[in-house]
Design brief:
Elements lengths: L7 H7 L5 H17 L7 H7 L5 H14 L1 E2 L4 E2 L1 H25 L7 H8 L20 H9 L24 H16 L6 H11 L4 H13 L7 H5 L1 H5 L5 E4 L5 E4 H12 L4 H24 L5
Antiparallel strand pairs: 1-2, 3-4
């Protein structure tokens, strides 16, 4: 025990006859019994060492306290009051442990569907007056998610977002390892996924080999991208097209910039990127377009 209850009135009533030295010896002996939850040793030399009693007066005070307040047993010197307090503390700790286990035991907690099943009857279940109840509406999205993401509250934060990645049984170890690193990277940025968003991302990445997903995660982390562009990593040649507007020559020799095709190609790559990254990409495209225009102007074209 690290703490114990001290009843000041009872202590004062039982120790009025003690001297100051005896008070000190009694408190040291009680503290030792409570902290170790053991009986005092019967060897006098060990008792003196426990109390740091070196003079004859101090040693006599220790023996006087033992004689007045402790009883000898097979385990050593014991006191009934201390034994009762220790038993109470053990019972209290056991109850607190049982309460915590029952509170956090996932098996004891009903799932989202079980709560709905208890609260919402089916169309054929009648009222007590014989009238049928309305059919309970079910959300097909939440039902499908419950099959792959367990509704364990320890896996979700207060905002409802996941605190750790969750995978179904059909996700390979290679995919799990790569996506685990991506989830950790997003958590370091203080961002996370909702259960539905995470499941959509996992299903999207399962369309690619695990090594390609790992390369995509490395590329996004190194470039500080907000999302994964695994298709661009798998097909780098196709992804390079559309990074600058295509130039067509008019009849008079002046270039006609194909902005429509350029924007369509860039939109395909940026459709899944968040708005802040999209703005950054647009700035890059404008700068590249101006650089290309400057180069053509120096070569004799007029833009």
């Amino acid at each position: 025990m690290h703490t114990y209850t001290r009843h000041l009135g009872d202590y004062a009533k039982d120790t009025r006859q003690l001297s100051l030295t005896e008070h000190g010896a009694y408190n040291v002996l009680m503290d030792w019994c409570y902290s170790t939850e053991r009986a005092l040793p019967t060897d006098e030399k060990m008792l003196f060492r426990l109390c740091a009693a070196f003079t004859k007066e101090e040693q006599q005070a220790v023996l006087s306290v033992i004689d007045q307040f402790f009883q000898e047993s097979s385990a050593g010197w014991v006191q009934k009051r201390i034994e009762r307090e220790l038993i109470k503390a053990h019972e209290k700790r056991g109850k607190a442990k049982d309460a915590a286990l029952s509170r956090w035991n996932a098996d004891a907690m009903p799932t989202h569907n079980e709560r709905n099943a208890d609260a919402m009857p089916t169309h054929s279940e009648p009222h007590a007056d014989g009238m049928p109840r309305a059919r309970a509406l079910r959300n097909p999205v939440s039902l499908s998610l419950s099959l792959s993401i367990p509704p364990n509250p320890r896996e979700r934060g207060k905002s409802g977002k996941l605190t750790r990645p969750v995978f179904s049984e059909d996700v390979s170890e290679g995919h799990q390892e790569a996506l685990n690193r991506w989830f950790k990277y997003k958590r370091e940025q203080r961002k996370s996924y909702t259960p539905s968003g995470w499941e959509a991302l996992v299903r999207q990445q399962l369309a690619f080999p695990a090594e390609i997903v790992a390369k995509s995660v490395n590329a996004s982390m190194a470039s500080n991208w907000q999302g994964l562009f695994t298709d661009k990593v798998q097909n780098p040649v196709n992804s390079s097209q559309g990074f600058s507007p295509q130039k067509k020559e008019k009849g008079g020799g002046e270039p006609d910039w194909n902005w429509r095709g350029f924007a369509a190609d860039r939109l395909e790559m940026s459709i899944t990127v968040s708005w802040d990254v999209l703005l950054e990409r647009m700035q890059e495209m404008i700068l590249q377009a101006w650089d290309a225009a400057d180069a053509d102007t120096k070569g004799g074209y007029t833009v």
